[in-house]
């Protein structure tokens, strides 16, 4: 009989088997590969195939859970309702970080992209014809949705210069600008995008690091929405009513 174990269960099996007197000396050693490269152990005549899958914690996927919010809130010393308020304002009531599998919510900002490209000495004028999708409004009719249209703009910008494209885009459920990759604790632009694209929990962790490194944690702890909004959303926060919307969302979530 062939039985398949995951990595975690295989380790438990090995510990059990190493002390099991029923293993016969004539049986093959633990984790002996077969002719086609599979690993197995033999337990009282039964062959147990072992699949070495990455540990569960490296396979982060799915929606944020209440436990995720509680863990990060505890680490930061803030209320869960305060984090949920930011999540709702940035990502909407559904608190979703992805628009499709492996593709985080994005907002490609042409103004920021132009500025970042200029800093890198890139003349975008010569791409006006060949990469016109970048410079036009998101074409939802052509691409099927706002997010798909934004992705098309980002993809075209990446083809010109990945750094300015990443920095000219706001990423994930917390809409963090790619130019803040270092403040999010990532070592490179590509690592920032990798984590943003892996899971909602990764997006939450990046947010936590960002507000620490940007000096916004005290304001979030005190629910000083005006100060937090100014630092997080920029000087035009008041015109957008960002601070009042945060306060309203916090009041709603704090009652739950």
Folded structure, characterized:
The protein is α+β, with helices and mostly antiparallel strands. 48% of the residues lie in helices and 11% in strands. It has 13 helices and nine strands. The protein has helices at residues 7-18, 66-76, 80-91, 110-119, 132-135, 140-143, 146-160, 162-167, 189-196, 200-213, 217-222, 225-233, 242-254, and strands at 2-5, 32-33, 39-43, 46-50, 98-100, 103-104, 106-108, 169-171, 176-177. The strands form three sheets. It has a four-stranded mixed beta sheet. It has a three-stranded antiparallel beta sheet with strand order 7-8-9. Helix 3 crosses helix 13 and helix 12 (225-233) crosses helix 13 (242-254). The chain is globular. The model is unreliable at 1-41 and 47-59 (pLDDT under 50).
| C-alpha Rg (nearest Å) | 24 Å
Helix % is: 40-55%
Topology pattern, helix = H, strand = E = EHEEEHHEEEHHHHHEEHHHHH
Number of helices: 13
Portion of residues in beta strands equals 5-15%
Q: How would the global form be characterised? A: globular
Report the count of strand segments: 9
Q: Could you give a quick summary of the protein structure above?
A:
With 256 residues, this protein is of the alpha+beta class.
Q: Can you give keywords for this protein?
A:
alpha+beta, 13 helices, 3-stranded antiparallel sheet, 11% strand, single chain, 48% helix, disordered N terminus, 256 residues
Which helices and strands, and how do they pair?
Layout: E1 2-5, H1 7-18, E2 32-33, E3 39-43, E4 46-50, H2 66-76, H3 80-91, E5 98-100, E6 103-104, E7 106-108, H4 110-119, H5 132-135, H6 140-143, H7 146-160, H8 162-167, E8 169-171, E9 176-177, H9 189-196, H10 200-213, H11 217-222, H12 225-233, H13 242-254
Parallel strand pairs: 1-4
Antiparallel strand pairs: 2-3, 3-4, 5-6, 7-8, 8-9
Helix pairs in contact: 2-10, 3-13, 12-13
């Amino acid at each position: 009989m062939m039985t398949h174990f995951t990595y975690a269960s295989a380790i438990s099996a090995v510990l059990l088997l190493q002390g099991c007197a029923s293993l016969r000396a004539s049986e093959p050693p633990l984790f002996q590969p077969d002719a086609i490269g599979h690993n197995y152990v033999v337990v009282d005549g039964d062959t147990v195939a072992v699949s070495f899958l990455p540990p569960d914690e490296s396979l982060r996927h799915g929606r944020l859970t209440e436990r995720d919010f509680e863990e990060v809130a505890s680490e930061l010393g803030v209320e869960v309702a305060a984090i949920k308020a930011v999540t709702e304002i940035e990502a909407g009531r559904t608190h979703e970080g992805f628009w499709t599998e492996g593709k985080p919510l994005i907002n490609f900002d042409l103004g920021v992209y132009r500025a970042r490209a200029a800093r890198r000495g890139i003349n975008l004028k010569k791409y006006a014809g060949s990469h016109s999708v970048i410079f036009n409004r998101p074409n939802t009719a052509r691409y099927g949705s706002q997010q798909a249209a934004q992705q098309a703009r980002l993809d075209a910008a990446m083809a010109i210069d990945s750094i300015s494209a990443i920095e000219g885009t706001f990423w994930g459920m917390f809409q963090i600008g790619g130019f803040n990759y270092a403040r999010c604790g990532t070592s490179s632009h590509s690592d920032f995008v990798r984590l943003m694209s892996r899971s909602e929990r990764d997006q939450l962790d990046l947010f936590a690091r960002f507000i620490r490194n940007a000096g916004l944690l005290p304001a979030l702890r005190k629910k000083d929405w005006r100060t937090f909004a100014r630092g997080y959303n920029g000087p035009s926060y008041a015109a957008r009513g960002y601070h009042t919307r945060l306060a309203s969302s916090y009041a709603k979530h704090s009652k739950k």
